[in-house]
Design a protein that fits this description.
The chain has a single domain, classed as Vaccinia Virus protein VP39 (Rossmann fold, 3-Layer(aba) Sandwich), CATH 3.40.50.150. Helices cover 37% and strands 22% of the residues. It is globular, with a radius of gyration of 16 Å. The structure holds S-adenosylmethionine. The site of S-adenosylmethionine has 23 residues, from helix 1.
Length: 214
């Protein structure tokens, strides 16, 4: 198990802002569809990194046993409330919310059938370390389910993302618009084996992907 010390949250303003953004996303039909499709593949032992206020929880299938990791104390408290509501609605579903960061997961080697990352690989300070850690906790046949906004494949849009990122990042909890997360996932030794439409693949600032990688 890696676990251990992790840096205290550095974005208290973002932690206060995110619940409002999350509530808006919760009402958005496209986001709900994407979350539902992602969670539909999350069976067995699931590790969710950076769960925020627990927006994924209501979508997990009844046979999921979820360890959700969230570094921000305020978001973690909201996630624990969301976990209580989701497990009350679906009695076999189990969800524990733990402190920690994706770069040092409090999870044993080869313990997870699924690691789920939703809108978080844009924000982790060390994406390569987080992906190596995801590989460590996944059993060999396990799957990474990732729903992320990524660098645009269009040069002008990628340049715009690069230009906007320093300011954006300050207000958005370290989130970067210019990460080529799909390339990072494959560089970490995963193969993309599934791709779900997001409807925003071609957005200029925040094109999203939703993929399964093994
Ligand atoms: C944009 S929010 C997304 C929350 C949630 N996954 C969702 O889909 O609504 C990004 C989340 O990543 C968390 N985060 C930031 N750095 C992290 C890290 N190094 N490891 C794990 N989570 C992190 C933030 O605290 C925040 O909850």
């Amino acid at each position: 198990m890696s676990g251990g010390a992790y840096e205290e949250p550095r974005f208290p303003r973002f932690a206060r802002l995110w619940p409002r953004v999350a509530r808006r996303l919760d009402r958005d039909p496209a986001t709900r569809r994407i979350r539902a499709e992602l969670a539909a593949e999350a069976h067995g032992a699931v590790v969710e990194i950076g769960c925020g206020v627990g927006s994924m929880f209501r979508f997990y299938p009844a046979d999921a046993d979820v360890t959700a990791v969230e570094p921000e104390p305020g978001l973690r408290a909201a996630a624990r409330a969301a976990a209580a509501a989701a497990t009350a609605a679906t009695p076999r579903l189990r969800i524990r919310v733990e402190p920690g960061v994706a770069e040092h997961l409090p999870v044993a080697d080869d313990a997870a059938d699924v690691v789920l990352a939703s809108l978080v690989l844009c924000s982790v300070p060390d994406q390569a370390a987080a992906l190596a850690e995801i590989r460590r906790v996944l059993r060999p046949e396990g799957a990474l389910l990732a729903y992320e906004h990524v660098r645009s494949s269009r040069r002008w849009a990628a340049a715009l993302q690069r230009g906007v990122t320093p300011l954006w990042s300050l207000g958005a909890g370290g989130c970067r618009l210019d990460r080529d997360t799909e390339a990072a996932i494959t560089a970490a030794g995963f193969e993309i084996v599934g791709r779900r439409p997001t409807g925003s693949e071609h957005a200029a600032l925040t094109p999203h992907l939703s993929v399964t990688a093994r």
